[in-house]
Request: fold
Amino acid sequence: MKWQKKGLIFDPAKHNLPDDSIGFAQSPQTLVFDDFVRVYFSTRKKDAATGKYLSFIAFADFDKNFTKVISISSKTVIELGGLGCFDEHGIFPINILRHDGKIFAYTCGWSRRQSVSVETSTGLAFSDDEGLTFKKAGMGPVLTSSLYESMLVGDSFVQFYEGVFHMWYIFGKKWIDAKDNEPPARVYKIAHATSTDGISWKKEEGKQIITDSLNADECQALPTVTKIGNRYHMYFCFREATDFRNNPKRGYRLGYAWSDDLMNWNRDDENTGISFSEKGWDSEMMCYPHIFQCDDKVYMLYNGNGFGKQGFGIAELQTS
Amino acid sequence: MFKWEKMGRVFKPTEVKDRSWLKEFAQAPAVLVFDDFVRVYFSCRPSADENGQYVSYSAYVDLNRENLLEIKKISETPILKLGELGTFDEFGTYPVSVIKYENEFRVYYAGWTRCESVPFNVAIGYGISKDEGKTFDKIGAGPVLSYSIDEPFILSGPKIRRFNNKWYLFYIAGKKWVLDNEKPEPVYAIRMATSDDGINWIKHNKDLIPARVENNEAQASPDVFFYNGKYHMFFCYRHSTNYRGKENGYRIGYASSPDLINWERDDSKVGIDVSAEGWDSEMISYPHVFELDGEVYMFYLGNQVGKYGFGLAKLEKYQP
Reply:
């Protein structure tokens, strides 16, 4: 794989974002229209009650050269959950799938815990106004923890291939106890589930589908998959479990795997074809990749340094 | 129409010595009948921590089968360990329901985690015993029955039953959190799921029992048994707010069904109420009904939901 970087295309500091956003444009994901591309992302506001951050969804519409922001969402795209719900304290990220005349959204909902910072689950919502707003299928999640996936289910990415809905997502393996000024640290891995209707999912229950390259505590996040010819390509981001926020050697970078059968994945980071820039917004960290196809081209959106504090950029796959 | 004769309190947890994990409470009694004793599982607590927060364990007492008021043994240890950091049962395993089937002892239990905006969340776990029900090992670190689109939080109070070659799990699911003087209080209703293997469950996704005392009535302890040609359910219910006293506190309700799916609630047939004075004068709750040697008995909790133990009643008269 070989990617040509086209640079930062959205800096949240340069736009007026809705709902009292204080910045961040994380985990960009697309809905492609005939003459523009809608890019959803998570931004943040302060929770008046606790002073902590709440992530919520906004979008920006781009022209198809990704050089111009046509418009930005002006009203709430999807509400956070009510008291005690799985998505009460944030939705981050959101994945959109257009299928059979419907627009599905798979959300990662966040709710805060006492002994650890957070728990997550995957929610489902639908839009009947071309993605301007989404209505949840219910108050609860569509995919959550289970016997062998005991925590932190989220980062769902769904595609419809050969008559089946495929979901790639992450689940938590454990929390590492707090030490050396670090809060409890989570470890999570990429997994796969299938569905015939996009609503009821069958997990492979605890099966990690992408091998570790760093060590057993490697954290793998945000799988994104696209099909080119007969081969499926997956990008994701990965990091060390601790000391990853300010240490570029241990922080997020992009990983790559391929599969010819959607069952067996071959991790092949050597062929990622994209890496840190020498300087600038993506010189220390790359994370939250999202691959999509548009007018016969393959693009990747991603975040750079600081988990997307400075926005997101785009790269285009070079045809060989 | 049932008519119950109260036989008095059987077990007083506050009188137990030498068990730091069993200081207060003996909640949600449920029996397993052995040849020469009756084991009553219940849930208990050590003293509260410095913040006034409790964890809960489950344990058992063995009663003389010939005289259920005589305690022969109290378990040496809790029957289940609390979960690891960040798992669903890190702070409690309460209540439990144990069944023996084909020489295997299975436990279904509610696991408690602590949240930030609401005090807790609950999901249902599963374990098996290798020592005749003295202790249980969890099958996985996660829950066997957890949240879904229509059951967003608080899956608790499991009661495992086997009818007609199928597993039935009666439980409660949270519907909403309401604020009582700014304190969140959960509202929950009785639900059911069925399974062929006891691990993969199909939720019925309906409330089985209509609310009676108010729309936000909370229902618990759905205790189902087959007797005299039909299914009977004793359960308990309370108001949504100010329910820790006599007026709005727990009472025992009753419903019957020909098929386990359609239930007719008729609390006037329950045949048991609070006493004029004493340990069960303010509330009665968490009924468990069982047949033993030609008689039908009910264990139940009294004031403060079992803080001072559980009592026994004997069926005096049943008129279909």
About this structure: The CA atoms of residues 200 and 249 of chain A lie 40 Å apart. The two ends of chain A are 8 Å apart (CA to CA). The mean pLDDT of chain A is 96.
